[in-house]
Amino acid sequence: MENPLGTSMTRRGFLAGAGALTVSVLLAGCNGSSGATTPAATSKGMGATTLVVFFSRPGENYGSPDLVNVDVGNTEVMAGYVADAIACDVFEVEPAEPYPSGYFDTCDRARRELDENSRPAVANLADAPDPAAYGTVLVGAPVWWGSEPRVMLTYLESQDFTGKTVIPFTTHAGSGLGTAVADCQAACKGATVDEGRAFSREGQSIASAGDAVRAWARGLGLATR
Ligand SMILES: Cc1cc2nc3c(=O)[nH]c(=O)nc-3n(C[C@H](O)[C@H](O)[C@H](O)COP(=O)(O)O)c2cc1C
Known about the structure:
- This protein is an alpha/beta fold.
- The chain has a single domain, classed as Flavodoxin domain (Rossmann fold, 3-Layer(aba) Sandwich).
- The protein has seven helices and eight strands, in the order ααβββαβαβαβαββα.
- The strands form two sheets. Strands 1, 4, 5, 6, 7 and 8 form a six-stranded parallel beta sheet that branches. It has a two-stranded antiparallel sheet with strand order 2-3.
- Strand 2 and strand 3 form a beta hairpin.
- Helix 3 crosses helix 7.
- The site of flavin mononucleotide has 25 residues, from helix 3 and helix 4.
């Protein structure tokens, strides 16, 4: 059993150990986002000049103190808050082979993909909006093993972001942005990549992070709603 937030432990031991190991930032980390508004995994703004792209995985995930099960992934909730605030189109990156619902199974697969630096296929790549239509692209993803999920790299490398501003944002359980900014810089050739923003648990739940996320999005200088 592999996990990114602790070393070989039992499930319960892992959770206890993870809390001890990652100090306050992790303890302020993500949780199950029950009750949050789901965002738009659809186009939200005709003629918008900003595109929000996200990848998110529902199912069992890290939570403190216990694993949690969510119908809507944390990053999807965050993308919804962003889309509340700014005039944008929204595109969800969907893996051709969905990730397992189990947390540890997903950790194992994500670890393999990272080690192999693979590019898992994206099911809906043909539906991706052309970045040429936008000035700014926000790229949201969970931190997986300290990095951008490889499936997001598949999407990013398939698009032409030349001349665009790319703003990464992550949700995480203690790692902040991880290597998301560097990963986006490497994948989005010709783009200016912003310093980005990481969202952990702001309050007791992802659901209560809405104000902070919307305030951040409104502060980006983009057209708002
Ligand atoms: C495969 C996997 C790897 C993860 N690796 C990390 C990590 O390295 N650092 C971290 O802070 N959180 C890590 N997490 C926790 C997620 O980043 C966090 O729960 C995130 O909010 C999940 O977003 P999602 O629900 O949109 O998928 C990991 C979770 C999974 C499933």
